[in-house]
Amino acid sequence: MRPLAIRAAGLFDGQKYLAGPVLVLSENGSVIDVDCSGVLPPEHADLLDLGDLTLLPGLVDAHTHLSWEPRGNPEHLLSEDSERLLARARLHADQALSAGITTLRDLGSRGFDLLSLREDYRRGRAVGPELLVSGPPITPSNGHGWFLGGVADSLDQVIAAVAERARRGVDWVKVMATGGFTTQGSDPARPSYDLETMAALVRSAHAHGLPVTAHAHATSGIAALVEAGVDGIEHCTFYTSRGAVLDSALVEAMADQGIRAGITLARPQGAPEPWIQEILDCVVPHAGELMKAGVRVALCTDAGINPARPHDVLPADLVYAADRGLTGLQVLRAATSVAAEVCGVGHCKGRIAPGYDADLIAVSGNPLHDIRAILGVRAVVRAGQRVR
Ligand SMILES: [Zn+2]
Fold first, then answer.
1. One domain, residues 378 and 332
2. How far does residue 268's CA lie from ligand 1's centre (Å)?
3. Do 234 and 382 share a domain, yes or no?
4. 105 C-alpha to center of ligand 1: Å?
5. Co-location of 269 and 188 in the same domain
6. Taking the C-alpha atoms of 209, 215, 219 and 224 in order, what is their torsion angle to the nearest 10 degrees?
7. Distance, CA 39 to ligand 1 centroid (Å)?
8. Residue 108 falls inside a structural domain
9. pLDDT tens-digit profile of 304-353?
10. For 94-115, what is each residue's pLDDT tens digit?
11. Fewest C-beta in 10 Å: which of 1, 140, 166, 177?
12. How many angstroms separate the alpha carbon of residue 157 from the centre of ligand 1?
């Protein structure tokens, strides 16, 4: 494959804006040079001239459900055959890639089917985003997401579930540390496991070299996760009997321990009940507080869980987060360089810099000034090849 030289008017490198003209040179799927001095592209490279567009790192969606049909009932997943499930996941991955999402962390599919898709993309057998896969979340009987097949109740069963994930080769262990709002009969206000079990889960995952991220709404569940030494917390709602109330001591502990947060931007649809609306209204301000306290925050989607969460929803969610008070810089970092860190791939994804994977997108205008630019992705480069 010949090197690719990409010319554009400016560049957000994942951390800051660099005024152009810029020339990004990639070879064998990696960025090897970023130049802002106006040099000519080398003769041995193919030129992709993007004129007055702005380059950004490919977006990272740190929390998705690639195999879920947004308009469907996820409980059907348990009995679905793998071929159909994978065909749908492939369509969703294409949809995400077209919207500029070049890395996706799947935090809950049925079984381990997505591992084969991940390998197809990694080995270049098919074009798709980089996938990071957890397999089925570990959850108690009838707990949140039980229908994905990751049920484990006792401490021994939990340890065995972690060992199975290590054997299968997942990238992350996902555990449901509290109930959820979307599984009938599960309670978001209650922890799913006692502290001893949660701590044993984290220890055994770490012994296998695997990071753990945990779904948690209730503050009591978040507190147990901080004590158990988990690596990431999803949603991180700080849900209490008085609604969503940030606990500053816990936030500080998260920052101190380097516990990352995957904040899913559940934009309200229609007219939710007032108590739900109140919780949803806290999501973006709380994300801002976590960032201010030094917690690494990814803004992500939970794509797949309902009709308002298709797999290309991240750009629209980022606009929502900016409209709710975060700056363009906070939003863009939380979907590129910081999101990559949150997913454990901060060394190769989420930035445009030498040594990083050549996953880039281009938009018109400067998204730091007007985040709406991100809604109109004009080009997508994945592993050094233009795919859109
Ligand atoms: Zn989820």
1. no
2. 16
3. no
4. 10
5. yes
6. -30
7. 45
8. no
9. 999 999 999 999 999 999 999 999 999 999 999 999 999 999 999 999 99
10. 999 999 999 999 999 999 999 9
11. 1
12. 22
Say how far residue 46 (Cα) sits from the centre of its chain.
Answer: 32
Q: Give the Cα separation of 335 and 309 in Å (integer).
A: 16
Question: Is residue 176 a part of any domain in this protein?
Answer: yes
Q: Which two tokens stand for residue 72?
A: 């469907």
Q: Strand pairing partners for 381?
A: 360, 386
pLDDT digits (tens, 9 = 90+) for 211-234: 999 999 999 999 999 999 999 999
Q: Are residues 194 and 332 in the same domain?
A: yes
Q: Containing domain of residue 370, as a range?
A: 4-57+350-386
| Residues 278, 366 within the same domain | no
User: For the chain, what is the domain count?
Assistant: 2
Q: How far is the CA of 107 from the centre of ligand 1 (A)?
A: 6
Residue tagged 């899913």 (tokens): 264
pTM listed for this prediction: 0.97
Look at phi and psi of residue 208 and say left if phi exceeds 0, alpha if psi is from -120 to 50, else beta. Answer: alpha
Is 298 within a domain?
Answer: yes
Tokens of 197: 């079990």
Whether 335 and 314 have beta carbons less than 8 Å apart is answered as yes
